[in-house]
Amino acid sequence: MRVLVSGGAGYIGSHTVVALVAAGHEVVVVDSFANSSPVVVGRLEALIGRELPVHAFDLTDKDKTEQLFASDRFDAVVHFAGLKAVGESVEQPLEYYENNLESTFSLLRAMRRHGCTLLVFSSSATVYGDAEPPYREDQALLSSSNPYGRTKVMIEQILRDVAAIDDTLQVAILRYFNPVGAHPSGTIGEDPQGTPNNLLPYVAQVAVGRRDRVAVFGGDYDTADGTCERDYIHVEDLAAGHVAALAHLRRALPAESSVDGKGARVHTWNLGTGRSTSVLAVIRAFAAASGRPVPFEIVGRRAGDMPRSWADASLAERELGWRATKTIDEMCADAWRWQAANPFGYGDA
Ligand code: UD1
């Protein structure tokens, strides 16, 4: 298939580009580079061994989106592009709603006008709010605690509404748990701008000497070691989940349903491992993988954090034949290979 990957220069997007090409698809990237580096493109071309067509614009630009679809032909869109920092979304709610919703509208309109019928959308486990894990795709959503998460809840709903009146559209909503790790080559990886919000990039920057110590947000949770537990998933496993979801959409009969009721053409799958790991266990695994000390200090809880989160990943296994295979040690080893070779991320290039 000829696949348009929005946000294809980003962390998950770039790894998925590699997986899609390896699976035999032709890939075209559209990325605004608002939160990603153009250096990724050369790295990706080296990995896939061919030129990668890239369009540098923001999908909220409806005219440019329309022109792209008018000048090319896509069988499918994998839609990663969006703003994703929880804290920033609280400070700038309008930017988050505008960017994440408008880009989706713009894509949906262009897809409809040009007969592109398959869409894979990046959602997040954040849509489960503060429900008790393990999370299942068919449970009621409690809505997220922040504007970023609410854009995911809203877009999921919009996709269901649009698919309900467009019987050509096939949609896969993928709810990611905590993606970490990097391509085993160490040439692409996660490169957050400024101070990392997420645990793994922070730990990696401590190990490589860019930061003093990890602040562990809370040591008094009702968990085995008192720190929060998350379902960390290797970004390559996550990328493979997109390839599997796309293959399923292509195979799916129009009337096939998943969890969304008879006749629905919207499939929702958790992409997680079904296991959880504590903050302290991650720090230990990273120190072992890197051979570097990872000093830490337990500080107060971070607002909005759940004690535990992990997926019931059985639906994706049953319906897609996909499951995550990589261990937390492999995630840390690959994240370290990337960080050690690129201490300042793509800024080193
Ligand atoms: C966070 C977001 C989630 C979003 C996801 C995207 C919050 C509350 N949740 O998930 O909505 O979809 O990122 O990647 O922001 N931790 C530390 N010290 C740090 C950083 C994190 O102890 O410096 C802890 C956190 O308290 C948490 C765990 O590490 O228990 C994982 O944190 P993080 O990587 O930010 O992921 P989530 O909170 O699960």
What CATH calls the topology of the largest domain is Rossmann fold
| Distance between the first and last residues' Cα | 32 Å
Instruction: Give the total of beta strands.
Output: 13
CATH superfamily of the largest domain: NAD(P)-binding Rossmann-like Domain
Query: In one word, what is the shape?
Result: globular
Strand order across the largest sheet: 3-2-1-4-5-6-11
Bound molecules: uridine-diphosphate-N-acetylglucosamine
Element order: H for helix, E for strand: EHEHEHEHHEHEEHEEEHEEHEHH
Summarize the biggest pleated sheet: 7 strands, parallel
Using only C-alpha atoms, the radius of gyration works out to 19 Å
Number of domains: 2
Helix content: 25-40%
Note the main attributes of this structure.
349 residues, alpha/beta, Rossmann fold, UDP-galactose 4-epimerase, domain 1, 2 domains, seven-stranded parallel β-sheet, two-stranded parallel ribbon, 11 helices, 39% helix, 15% strand, globular, binds uridine-diphosphate-N-acetylglucosamine
Descriptive report:
- The model is unreliable at 255-259 (pLDDT under 50).
- The strands form 4 sheets. Strands 3-2-1-4-5-6-11 form a 7-stranded parallel sheet, with helices on both faces. A two-stranded parallel sheet has the order 7-10.
- It folds into 2 domains: 2-179 and 232-271, Rossmann fold (3-Layer(aba) Sandwich); 199-230 and 275-311 and 325-348, UDP-galactose 4-epimerase, domain 1.
- It is built from 11 helices and 13 strands.
- The protein starts with a strand and ends in an 8-residue tail after the last helix.
- The protein has 349 residues and is α/β, with parallel strands linked by helices.
- Bound molecules: uridine-diphosphate-N-acetylglucosamine.
- The site of uridine-diphosphate-N-acetylglucosamine (UD1) has 20 residues, from helix 7 and strand 8.
